[in-house]
Amino acid sequence: MKILPLLLISGLGLLLQPPARAQEAAPAFKEEAMTITRQLAAFISLDDARQLPVRRLTQQRLSEQADARQLYANDPDMLQQKLTAIGQAYTTQLGTILAPAQYERYLAAAPGTLHAAVAAVRTPAPVVITQVVAATTVPRKPAPKPVPARPAVAGRAAAKGAAVRR
After folding, report:
1. Secondary structure of the chain: what % helix, strand, coil (to 5)?
2. What is the pLDDT of residue 24?
3. Is residue 1 one of the residues assigned to a domain?
4. Which member of 15, 49, 109, 129 lies 3.0 to 4.6 Å from 113 by CB, making a disulfide possible if both were Cys?
């Protein structure tokens, strides 16, 4: 009976530890996101009402990038794919927050102008593949001849109809 309260207390202690670690990591991203958002705000004339959502989105991107770097540290190709996907999602979501003129300025930023964490990552345009086929003459087969209707079948149906009428 004395063991049960000890197990409950130790279980509660384990449950409370992960949020403490998450809170330790969050301020680093929060400060970095704030600095990056200030730089972005100056570049695209970001108004006060949009700064908080942009900062939250930037903080989320920084966190996702850090997680991807940790998960795919041994697979550089997969890491690059994940970072590109995170960047594309950020660019798309930023388009829903910013005014159209701000978003256009953001997209028009030259590479290296903005911090890498907020640089626009565009979705590649679909590649159109055109193939030229050499004209060749294919011999045509003659059209099949129509099959004539069988008069006997029509006659039987007429005979049945006449038999039903009687």
Report:
1. 65, 0, 35
2. 45
3. no
4. 109
Instruction: Give the pLDDT confidence score for residue 22 in this predicted structure.
Output: 42
Q: Could you tell me the CA-to-CA distances from 8 to 1, 17, 34, 90, 126 in Å, in that order?
A: 12, 15, 40, 42, 57
Closest to 97 (Cα-Cα) out of 51, 62, 60: 51
**Number of neighbouring beta carbons within 10 Å of residue 109:** 15
Domains contained in the chain, number: 1
Look up the domain containing 55 and give its range: 17-108
- For residue 138, the model assigns a pLDDT of 62
Environment class of 136 (CB within 10 Å of its CB; exposed 0-12, middle 13-18, buried 19+): exposed
Is residue 113, in this structure, part of any structural domain at all?
no
23 in a structural domain: yes
The dihedral through the CA atoms of 149, 153, 154, 155 has a sign that is positive
Mind listing the pLDDT tens digit for each residue in 57-107?
A: 999 999 999 999 999 999 999 999 999 999 999 999 999 999 999 999 988
**Token code pair at residue 89:** 């999602």
Torsion of CA 55, 57, 61, 66, to 10 degrees: 60
Whether residue 134 is contained in a domain is answered as: no
